[in-house]
């Protein structure tokens, strides 16, 4: 009997391994208490399978490691910068490049240049560092993502789409002169790695050209978004990932990029632009905050590895295996009845903590509590994406996002299918004893981005 679907396999072979530490339940309990029930504060050596993030945690290829040996560490005019510039022009189509140490460096520079105090920044759901940089520059973020994105059970295929009716209401209320730009993220992280359709991108571009508003892209996981367009959107099945990526970028005026995701490197990012005046200001500011405009806080070897990784990110077999592993884990979780965000997104599985722990009030941090319990079970580190990550508004009140999620983020080219089985079986065990799980109390809260350093204790 033929299988119902074709299996996928990794388009690489393993030639080096990193040994993992196996811990006992007692050791994990002690480590978690010392970390204040915050998985970000756990020591890496106490983690068995690390799904905290896919940022900078990926495995580089032999070609990237070879490139690391070819670093031109000149302070100015490194040849690796020009290799990176060439890759950005060829793969993404942007004319100007400003390298930064990582994506948030680009967010900072872009926000300082384009946002004035009191400006409005519409975006398809906030991201933590992006919104903070916008706020520090004096802007006010407004969520203009479609309503389906806030419903974890909706099966709409492009839940990252922008609702132009919401944008138009902001324009009517504030005027186009107060709209700094529209921030479009592809594979929207906090919605569960949900993609944006090409149809929506075209509509946004048409609208903004008519209104004289710029579109800035958060293109951190653009290749993953391109894969979903290829698989789900009419007219794109026969187009390559590379072709779709370039078309996405063509509908925008510039982009921030964290090379630590798609480009498979451990550090690095950039700001890419088509407007020379914005570029001129950006390459002035990068000297202040990051480094000279031809290295932006990066070693030459890191720029070389990133330029190679950009080309690898749009390879068809790579993306099929990358998304295939995420889908494999998601399907296993659904077999066990775990409530997850659907459709399955690009970079991880997002468990709905509200459905998982309906007896825990959102003010008692259910996603944070669930992430702690998952670590206790088998040493698997995940992260909270709910009320803790959302932070507080200008009045000091907690935001209460509709989505209260635990993110199982899968690093690229790192773990095997057997690891995915272990993860699914662990969350299933936690689900069986979910009624015994209690909420948490926050006992320390830093001023900014509290999810990184906040500490908790059990209620």
Q: What would your notes on this structure say?
A:
The protein contains 16 helices and 14 strands. Strand 5, helix 7 and strand 6 form a beta-alpha-beta unit. Helix 2 runs antiparallel to helix 11 and helix 8 crosses helix 9. It starts with 24 loop residues before the first helix and ends with a strand.
How would you concisely characterize the structure shown here?
The chain is of the alpha/beta class and 459 residues long. It has helices at 25-34, 62-68, 79-92, 103-114, 128-136, 164-174, 198-211, 222-232, 241-250, 276-289, 300-313, 316-335, 353-356, 366-378, 387-390, 417-432; strands spanning 49-50, 96-100, 120-123, 140-143, 182-185, 215-218, 254-258, 269-273, 348-352, 380-381, 383-385, 405-409, 440-444, 455-458. The chain has 16 helices and 14 strands.
Spans of at least 5 consecutive residues whose pLDDT stays below 50 are none
Overall geometric form = globular
Strand content: 5-15%
Specify the structural class: alpha/beta
Q: Give me the number of helical elements.
A: 16
Q: Span between N and C termini?
A: 53 Å
Cross-sheet strand order for the largest sheet: 2-8-7-6-5
What is the tally of beta strands? 14
Share of helical residues: 25-40%
Q: What is the arithmetic mean of pLDDT? A: 96
N to C succession of SSEs: HEHHEHEHEHEHEHHEEHHHEHHEEHEHEE
**Biggest sheet: strands, sense, closure?**
5 strands, mixed
Rg estimate, integer Å: 21 Å
């Amino acid at each position: 009997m033929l299988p119902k679907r074709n299996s996928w396999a990794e388009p690489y072979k393993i030639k080096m391994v990193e040994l993992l530490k196996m811990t006992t339940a007692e050791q994990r309990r002690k480590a978690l208490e010392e970390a204040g029930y915050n998985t970000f504060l756990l020591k890496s050596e106490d983690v068995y399978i690390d799904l905290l993030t896919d940022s900078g945690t990926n495995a580089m290829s032999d070609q990237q490691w070879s490139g690391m040996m070819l670093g031109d560490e000149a302070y100015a005019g490194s040849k690796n910068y020009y290799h990176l510039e060439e890759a950005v022009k060829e793969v993404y189509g942007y004319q100007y490049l400003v390298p930064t140490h990582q994506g948030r460096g680009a967010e900072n520079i872009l926000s300082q240049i384009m946002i004035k105090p009191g400006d409005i920044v519409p975006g398809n759901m906030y991201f933590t560092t992006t919104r903070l940089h916008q706020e520090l520059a004096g802007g006010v973020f407004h969520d203009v993502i479609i309503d389906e994105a806030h419903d974890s059970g909706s099966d709409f295929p492009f839940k990252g789409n922008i609702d132009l009716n919401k944008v138009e209401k902001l324009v009517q209320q504030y005027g186009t002169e107060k709209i700094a730009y529209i921030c479009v993220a592809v594979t929207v992280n906090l919605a569960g790695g949900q993609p944006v359709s090409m149809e929506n991108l075209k509509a946004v571009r048409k609208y903004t050209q008519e209104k004289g508003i710029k579109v800035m892209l958060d293109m951190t996981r653009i290749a993953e978004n391109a894969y979903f367009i290829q698989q789900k959107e009419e007219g794109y099945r026969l187009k390559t990932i590379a072709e779709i990526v370039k078309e996405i970028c063509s509908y925008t005026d510039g982009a921030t990029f964290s090379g630590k995701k798609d480009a498979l490197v451990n550090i690095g990012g950039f700001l890419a632009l088509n407007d020379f005046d914005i570029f001129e200001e950006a390459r002035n500011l990068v000297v202040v905050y990051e480094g000279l405009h031809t290295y932006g806080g990066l070693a030459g070897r890191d720029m070389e590895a990133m330029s190679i990784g950009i080309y690898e990110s749009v390879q068809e077999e790579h993306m099929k295996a990358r998304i295939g592993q995420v889908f494999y884990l998601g399907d296993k979780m659904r077999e066990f009845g775990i409530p997850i965000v659907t459709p399955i997104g690009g970079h991880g599985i997002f468990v709905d903590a509200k459905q998982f722990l309906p007896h825990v009030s959102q003010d008692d941090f259910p996603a944070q509590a669930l992430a702690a319990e998952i670590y206790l079970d088998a040493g698997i580190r995940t992260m909270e994406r709910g009320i803790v990550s959302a932070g507080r508004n200008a009045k000091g009140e907690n935001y209460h996002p509709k989505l209260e999620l635990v993110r199982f983020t899968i690093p690229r080219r790192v773990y095997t299918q057997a690891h995915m089985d272990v993860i699914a079986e662990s969350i299933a065990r936690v689900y069986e004893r979910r009624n015994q799980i209690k909420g948490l109390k926050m006992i320390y809260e830093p001023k900014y981005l509290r999810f990184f350093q906040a500490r908790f204790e059990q209620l």
